[in-house]
Design a protein that fits this description.
single chain; Immunoglobulin-like; 19 strands; elongated
């Protein structure tokens, strides 16, 4: 009878342990994590070029950096505290996209662009691993067009462009007009003139211009100062 009582007590203890999750690790810093995501922090104010998120991916001008933070959530959607010492970071192409790990965050930067990759934009997947799960974000390195450019039109007129770049978007700080960089192509609308050009090098752009009214058009060359 004593043995039967002891066995029942043991089975009851084991059942209680299973029900309460004893020894499962859920009480630790990584417990209760149902999903992971990467959040891009806002770029510092006043920088000439910065990375930007678009359609779930990060576009980084060559030489620019972004700050990514790992966010962990429980099954109910609430945010779970992350143990920084248990997070690991990686880049699928470390030659093109650098990852500088800093616990639960990392600085991600572009190292190679169109000209280094023989006519294509380098793309890498940045991944954070934690609590047996992973979160990734594609990072594409685009040509960095930020800086001062001298635009020389075929009619002899020249114009100074002071460009700031966020992801693929470029803005002329003198007028506020904007454009875009995609591959080796640059488009820009400045003071009623549309520019469609291509990078022949990182410091040279050649293409055409045309006024929105249709009265002015021709070719131009932009040289980075």
């Amino acid at each position: 009878m004593k043995n039967r009582t002891t066995l029942l007590a043991l089975l009851s203890a084991l059942a209680l342990a299973a029900a309460t999750g004893c020894g499962s690790g859920d009480d630790g810093p990584e417990g209760g994590v149902s999903s992971l995501a990467l959040r891009m922090e806002p770029a510092p104010q006043g920088v000439d070029s910065a990375c930007a998120q678009e359609s779930g991916s990060c576009n980084c001008p060559n030489g620019a950096y972004a700050r990514l933070t790992l966010v962990a959530r429980a099954s109910d959607g609430s945010e779970v505290a992350v143990d920084p010492s248990s997070v690991s970071w990686s880049s699928s192409d470390s030659a093109s996209v650098e990852v500088i790990a800093d616990g639960a965050s990392a600085d991600v930067g572009g190292l190679r662009d169109w000209f280094d990759a023989n006519g294509s934009e380098p793309t890498a997947s940045v991944t954070a691993s934690y609590a047996g799960r992973q979160a990734s974000m594609p990072v594409t390195v685009v040509i960095n067009a930020s800086g001062d450019w001298n635009a020389l039109l075929d009619n002899g007129f020249s114009y100074l462009l002071s460009l700031q770049q966020s992801g693929r978007t470029i803005v002329d700080t003198g007028t506020g007009y904007s454009g875009r960089v995609a591959g080796d192509a640059l488009t820009l609308a400045v003071s009623g003139i549309n520019v469609n050009a291509r990078f022949t090098s990182r410091t040279q752009v050649s293409g055409t211009y045309a006024s929105t009214s249709g009265g002015l058009h021709g070719t131009l060359t932009c040289t980075k100062q």
